[in-house]
Design a protein that fits this description.
By secondary structure, this protein is of the alpha/beta class. 40% of the residues lie in helices and 15% in strands. It is built from eight helices and seven strands; from the N terminus they run βαβαβαβαβαβααβα. It has a seven-stranded mixed sheet with strand order 3-2-1-4-6-5-7. Helix 2 (49-55) links the parallel strand 2 and strand 3 (59-62).
């Protein structure tokens, strides 16, 4: 089995008006990976986010603002490197854990998902935290496996997983990026991570956004169960979690 290094890793994110945070994220990635990881930002900002990202060596793909999922879907498909790591650009995720995510990929996992909730996520607004816990419980019931955090933004993927799946969701893409691999039998591991207080202001409305995420979880799980039951599903779900 190939042992991947940070020369094989791309760290990707959708960015939107995160001028206050993006520099810290990119500096952390550069420090932890010794500048070896590729960084891709799909950006729809009206502030200096894109300029700051370019100044720090990131590849910036400009895109008209169309929502979280549209940006992140393009970001995960853009790099050619065999390991793709997603993160958010608000400095909430611990880039110092990138070596642990890469180690898990090298152990044979196809997807490594950062679990913020098991450690409490005390810096997350209480309403958001309760909502994310509810999403995880709902998803667990629908897929038949205990999932701790379905809406985390920090995950590592083998590139073939990204390319194997047609991603359809927008606001709910973070949940889809976990549920479809789980239900297709890819080896998925959740790693507990700390979650920091975000820099800058959030643009996501928790009520409307939450409703969209809940709808995505139900829709994606339903589609994947139908796919399992279909005699022409294509790829067999043979890998153990």
């Amino acid at each position: 089995m190939t042992a991947y290094t940070f020369d094989d890793v791309a760290v990707v994110m959708g960015t939107y008006n995160e001028e206050a945070a993006i520099e810290h994220v990119l500096e952390d990635i550069d420090r932890v990976t010794d500048g070896r990881a590729e960084v891709v930002c799909v950006d729809g900002s009206s502030d200096r986010t894109a300029a700051v990202a370019r100044d720090h060596g990131a590849r910036v793909i400009k895109q008209e603002p169309q929502g979280y999922g549209v940006a992140v879907r393009e970001a995960v498909l853009a790099p050619d490197r065999p390991v793709v790591v997603t993160t958010d650009c608000d400095d909430t995720y611990p880039m110092e854990r990138l070596p642990d995510f890469l180690d898990a990929i090298n152990e044979g996992y196809d997807v490594v998902s950062g679990d913020r909730l098991s450690r409490g996520a005390e810096t997350m607004p209480r309403f958001n935290r309760l909502g994310n816990q509810a999403f995880a419980l709902c998803a667990s019931a629908l897929v038949g496996r205990r999932l701790r955090d379905t809406t985390t933004g920090m995950r590592a993927y083998r590139k073939e997983v990204i390319e194997d799946v047609t991603w359809t969701e927008n606001t709910g893409l973070s949940a889809e990026l976990l549920l479809r691999p789980v239900m297709r039998g890819y080896r998925v591991r959740e790693l507990t991570i700390d979650y920091r207080e975000r820099r800058g202001e959030t643009t996501l409305d928790p009520l409307s956004g939450g409703a969209e995420i809940a709808g995505s979880i139900v829709r994606v799980a339903g589609e994947e169960w139908l796919r399992r039951l279909s005699p022409d599903t294509g790829r067999a779900s043979t890998r153990s979690a």
